């Protein structure tokens, strides 16, 4: 008996070379005819985190950042490892949960391809002095639609930060280019992944991309 499409999807993987570190990512359906390859950086181990932190830091160091900013949740380990590899100590995390100390936080509304509904990015006002007038690099795990990253950039700029660079592990498809606009020129990444469409017995196949 041939496996049905759902069984094929459950077993399909996409291999990506992340700056010399091969990773197999599961292909996960978002809609019946649309899927993504999902990277959960928190599940890929300490060595992978150290590797991507070191590789991103090498690309970002020439920008001479004063502080690294990452967004919860999956941007947190990226921010920590890049900060560590740069030989710095402090970093800033943009939260998504309205914790008790964030009642008067700076807020930015965002959406994400991997999360349902609108979300908020929250910047603790106590962290503003770490950003104001300083050279800031914003990091994340993956940029897909670009909405989350754009929101992070806007929030940092509202706090007075000078965004000199963006670092991500993966770029996904090309929608983020329109969302980020001129800020695309600031982006440094380690690898690229496509999005996927259903193709009968072949399962999921990459969607052809238009390069801007």
UniProtKB/TrEMBL annotation:
Residue ranges of the TM segments: none
SUPFAM superfamilies from the UniProt entry: PRTase-like
Ranges for domain Phosphoribosyltransferase: 61-177
Keywords for the protein's UniProt record, in alphabetical order: Glycosyltransferase, Transferase
Listed Pfam families: Pribosyltran
Gene Ontology MF, one: glycosyltransferase activity
Keyword hit for Transferase: yes
InterPro entries: PRTase-like, PRTase_dom
Protein name, entry field: Adenine phosphoribosyltransferase
Species of origin: Mesorhizobium helmanticense
Organism phylogeny: Bacteria, Pseudomonadati, Pseudomonadota, Alphaproteobacteria, Hyphomicrobiales
């Amino acid at each position: 008996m041939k496996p049905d499409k759902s069984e094929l999807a459950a077993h399909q993987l996409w291999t990506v070379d992340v700056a010399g570190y091969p990773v197999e990512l599961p292909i996960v359906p978002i809609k019946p005819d649309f899927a993504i390859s999902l990277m959960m950086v928190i599940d890929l181990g300490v060595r992978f985190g150290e590797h991507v932190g070191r590789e991103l830091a090498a690309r970002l160091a020439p920008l001479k950042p004063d502080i690294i900013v990452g967004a919860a949740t999956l941007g947190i380990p990226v921010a920590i490892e890049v900060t560590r590899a740069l030989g710095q100590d402090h970093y800033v995390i943009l939260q998504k949960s309205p914790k008790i100390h964030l009642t008067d936080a700076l807020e930015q509304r965002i959406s994400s391809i991997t999360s349902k509904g609108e979300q908020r990015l929250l910047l603790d006002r106590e962290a503003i002095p770490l950003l104001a007038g300083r050279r800031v690099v914003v990091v994340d795990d993956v940029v897909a639609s670009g909405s989350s990253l754009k929101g992070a950039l806007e929030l940092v700029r509202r706090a007075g930060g000078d965004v000199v660079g963006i670092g991500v592990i993966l770029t996904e498809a090309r929608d983020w280019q329109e969302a980020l606009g001129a800020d695309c020129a600031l982006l440094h990444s380690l690898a690229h992944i496509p999005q996927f469409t259903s193709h009968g017995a072949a399962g999921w196949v990459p969607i052809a991309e238009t390069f801007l």
